Amino acid sequence: MEKTPRIIKLAAHNQTNFPTIYRQLANGELSTAFTAPFKQILFVGFNALNNAEAKLFKQWQDEGKALFYFDADAYYLEDTQQEAGLFIRRNIFQTGLQNALGDVPNIIGNRSDAIHLYASTGKVSQTKLLHDVLIKNNILCSCKSHAILLADESLLVPLLQSLPDTKVNITTGFPLTQSPIFGILDLWMKVHEQISHLRKKKIPFQDVETFLNNPLTKTSSQEKTELQTFIAQKQLFDIDIQDIHIRTSVLPHFFRTLASSKDVIPTLAHILQNVLESLAQDTQIKQIDANLLIETQKVLNQLQLGFDKIPQLSILFQIGLIRKAIAPINSAIEGDPLDGIQIMGLLESRCLNFDNVYILGVNEGILPKISSAATFLPNTLRRAYGLPILENQDALSAYLFYRHLQYSTGIHLFYNSIVDESSTGEESRFIRQLEFESNFNFLKQQQQQPILFPPKEEELIVPKTGKVWDYMRAKYIDGQAKISATALTTYLQSPLQFFFKHVAEIKEPPRISQEFEMNLLGTVIHNVMEEILKPYKGLEDFTPTSVLLDKIPEIDGLILAEIAEQYSLDCKEINDLSSLQRIMHKIAREYLKMYLEYDASNFQSFRIIELENDQDYVISLPIQINGQVEHVNIYGIIDRVDQVVTDLGEIKTRIVDYKTGADAVKFTSMDKVFAANTENKALVQTLFYAFVFEQKTGIRNLEPNLYVARKMREEGTLFYGSRGALMEGDFLAQQKEEFVGFLISTLEEIFNPDIPFKHNPYL
Question: Lowest mean pLDDT: which of 26-30, 490-494, 534-538, 652-656?
Answer without folding.
Answer: 26-30
